[in-house]
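Reply to dn_fold:

You asked what the input looked like. This is it:
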Amino acid sequence: MADSDEFLRISNLHAWYGESHILHGVDLTVHKGEVVTLLGRNGAGRTTTVKSIVGLVGKRTGSITINGRESIDMPPHQIAKLGIGYCPEERGIFASLSCEENLLLPPVIAGGGMPIDEIYEMFPNLLERKNSPGTRLSGGEQQMLAVGRILRTGAKLLLLDEISEGLAPVIVQALARIIVLYQLLDLSRTYRLVMTTHDEGVLCVKTREADVAFQRMMKRMTTPLHWCPDIPLSAEGGHALNYSK
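and this is what came back:
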């Protein structure tokens, strides 16, 4: 019987792109309020794991249970309605739409999403650029837009793929502080996050005020920060890092 706090369970997941067998027996669980970060070098299967959850690979076998429902045979649009928000590595910003229009584009799939004024409070740069074409924003602002967009939908599991890719270290630290410290310390919401990165620095927050917040978060954790080397991502290897509120 699955844990009542368990939102995602992946069991013996295999995935292919054409004839290429990429994932080999992935096992993974995500619980209420938990962050799981998939770490590994390029080609380790991080992005493929995330795409497999939302059904964006050519073929997948095994089991992916989302909030108690088996989704391995569902198309992507039905998987999204189970409470999944996906922020792809390429961000998916539409050039023909303004920043605010991009923000409002995805449909709301459940109650409890973040109101747009709260997103602007979280990402003040987006308020300043709300009428600018989406692709005229800086790389950091586009990443904030991509993250804010899924927070508005009411999704309960947020999949963030390579949010640090191509960004200056100071922007990476700001995103990490906002997403991990601000959002997860908000007990009124019950988000779960799966993040992928090849850069362990995305988990490091170096400013003094963020370090204080990180220490507060550590005190609230039910289990200590720990490596999980027993989670195979692919034949090439990789690991997951877990912590809970």
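The first helix runs from residue 46 to 53.
Hope that clears it up.
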